[in-house]
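SEVERITY: medium
COMPONENT: batch folding queue
REPORTER: lab tech (J.R.)

DESCRIPTION
The queue accepted two submissions in a row. Attaching both inputs and their returned structure tokens so the on-call engineer can compare them side by side.

ATTACHMENT 1
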Amino acid sequence: MNEPTIFDRILDGEIPCHRLYEDEHVLAFLDIGPLSAGHTLVIPKERKAFLHELSDDAAAAIGRVLPRLCRAVLTATGASAYNVLQNNGAPAHQAVFHVHFHIIPKHDGGGLGIGWPAGQLATNDAERLVTAIRQALSDDRPSSSD
């Protein structure tokens, strides 16, 4: 078995957190290394490293609460803009290998800063990707929590 992550330890009650929200499937708490005031982490209680590993039930539970948490963070902080960030894999800057979403309010230039080096999508590449992704979707079956 892999070493428990800090989020596993929070879920197990070994490490305290500043809880904002909790239900049967989801826990939200303040990030202790915030990029801005109100920086919030939202994690599923289902212990998976990557978003694509989550059951449909766990993903739906996060999807149901994420907009509500964003509204609460905006109201509480007075921010009018924010980023929702979710990374998968070390090359994508994932540091804790338990699925998590960041809600990062933007305050006077603070918060998340990113570059976006947009490319171009060629028609033949688009057609190939559409075919491949549609095939993968048709092969994928919905899953539920274990």
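ATTACHMENT 2
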Amino acid sequence: MRSNLWYLISKNNKLYTVIIGLIGYKAKEHNDAFDSEKGRVINLFTKRFIEKFCDSTGAIDWIKLVEYNSGNYDLNQYLP
């Protein structure tokens, strides 16, 4: 004999479908908010990258980029 937990706790044989539906709805809300924020941050980082490392035509200034990532720092500026 198969017992039905959902009916036992709620008198509704299909309660699990209601629960899953609600979880799915909430997950979509959170995913939409995350995607919106992710897009905003990507746009901001792209804007900053272009301002700092691209020339007036939009081409990457590879010298600036490599110097920024690999150049030597004046350690006296950062050490006590």
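NOTES FROM REPORTER
The CA atoms of residues 41 and 47 lie 10 Å apart.
No errors were logged for either attachment.
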